[in-house]
Amino acid sequence: MTKETIKSLESKTDLTTTPFNLGAFYGKALKRLFDLALSGLGLMVLSPLFLVIAIRIKRESPGPVAFRGARMGKKGRIYQILKFRTMRECPESYAGPCITAEDDERITPLGRWLRDSKINELPQLWNVLRGEMSLVGPRPEEPEITAHWAETVRQEILSVRPGITSPASVLYRREEKLLKAETVMDEYLQKILPDKQRLDLLYVRTRSFFSDLDIIFLTLISLFPSADGIFIPESSLYSGFLAIFIRRYVSWFVVDSLTAFLAAGLVGLLWRLNGPLNLGWGTSIGIAAAMALLFSMINTLLGLGRVSWRKASANLVFDLALSSGLATILIFAINWFLPARLLVPPGLVIDIGLFSLIGFIVMRYRQRLITGLASRWLQVRHRTSILGERLLIVGAGDCGQLAGWLLQKSNLSNAFIVVGMVDDDPLKYNMRIDGYPVLGSTKDLPAIVQRYNIGVILYAITRIAPAEQEKVLALCRSLPVRLVIIPDLIKILQDHLLPKGH
To answer: d(Cα 210, Cα 246) in Å, to the nearest integer?
Structure first.
């Protein structure tokens, strides 16, 4: 590839600025330190093996020991990837396709073994040490191939360093066996490359330090010849055992332990304001730490770390209460057998249980609590428009409640503020349904739209006569708002799923 071609491809892939936020700390600090440490150690430990392989390559066929090829790196920078040479040094090797198949005659016998064992990739540790690659990342492609990628795909994949291994590398660890020499490029571009791009995009969007460790472990497992028949689930490459264990158990265990410890400390300080505890500072801290660990352990055993709390229902507060209650009862039982100098007042144990429960609830529902408080404050000050476009739901029945729930649970909650509902049922006036006030009837729509500066009306009435529905829709269309008509999902489900007369 000429220098002019390289400069042209680099200019087409200018990614010096990228809109993707991938975790600045992990991407720029911890991951790089991890790469430096392992690549440096790997080069030192494997240097005798490199020497033996270099001698064997030179003995088998004339030519250089290493292969250097242009690859597209982070932010579109082209670099020279380093591998052990596996092809014969002849014009045919350079004139053929850049993708190799199982029956490719350009590959030497030793090169076939190096490729099957993936040992030919180990010199890329030098690329990692230089900062051109990472241990884990999307596998680098030749510039000619990346030139055919969609612009959005190229920007996102090339926003991170390419890696020696990746989820696509594990799933396609025997890629050459899927290709035939005569149709290698067509099969690769049409069948394999699109799926590898999908896998690379998933990695870029979900990567973490512990998922990288999972990928490295699964890569080592997949190198064993006996692993050819082992099925490796795709999901395990993005959320493997280590990542799941840290996310679901260790992280919440640590958070709950700190929360309960702070709760115990706060309660202890409040009690000391009313009188001495006669436990001593050292003993008090030790008892508080033991209680905190017990609360956290019960939460873990009851599976509260496996809940996706970002969108969890309020009913799970009762599970937290149950866990805190069991821990409190267990502390009472342990306290019964403690020596007199370590006895904790029963009221103190109850207070610690209550404060810990409050802390657990706040930590798990903190985002919704903060958002709810901010939204309520702005509603009181009539400033909700700065958070999103004001929206009014017409209909407070099942469909209206479903529409409100979807707006709350989806990303649309950041774009729209539901001011309230309107409904022609007089029993619902001035009531709150799913947290939304019923502001009036459909006849009051013009006044409500003007008073609350409504920008969008969501029509969600299902049980209404056709003539009355057209009348309400005509009124909505006459107002200076955008009208969105919700399909009658509930009626469709009733007609098709429920038996007649149900």
So the answer is: 8
Q: Return phi, psi of residue 23, to 5°.
A: 85, 85
DSSP 298-339: HHHHTTGGGS-GGG--TTHHHHHHHHHHHHHHHHHHHHHTS-
Mean pLDDT across 220-233: 73
Does the pTM of the predicted model rise above 0.90? no
Nearest to 303 by CA among 368, 252, 363: 252
Rg (CA), the chain: 32
Nearest to 189 by CA among 225, 197, 209: 197
CB–CB of 41/66 below 8 Å? no
Residue with token string 């149950």: 322
Cβ-count burial 413-444 (b if 16+ within 10 Å, e if not)? beebbbbbbbbbeeebbeeebeebbbbbbbee
Which sequence spans correspond to the domains of the chain?
A: 3-239, 249-364, 384-497
For 30-68, write each residue's pLDDT tens digit: 889 999 999 999 999 999 999 999 999 999 888 899 999
**Which superfamily does CATH assign the domain made up of 384-497 to?**
NAD(P)-binding Rossmann-like Domain (3.40.50.720)
- Is pLDDT at 283 greater than 80 in this prediction? no
- Give the 3-state secondary structure percentages of the chain, helix then strand then coil, rounded to 5: 65, 10, 25
Distance from C-alpha of 467 to C-alpha of 281, rounded to nearest angstrom: 76
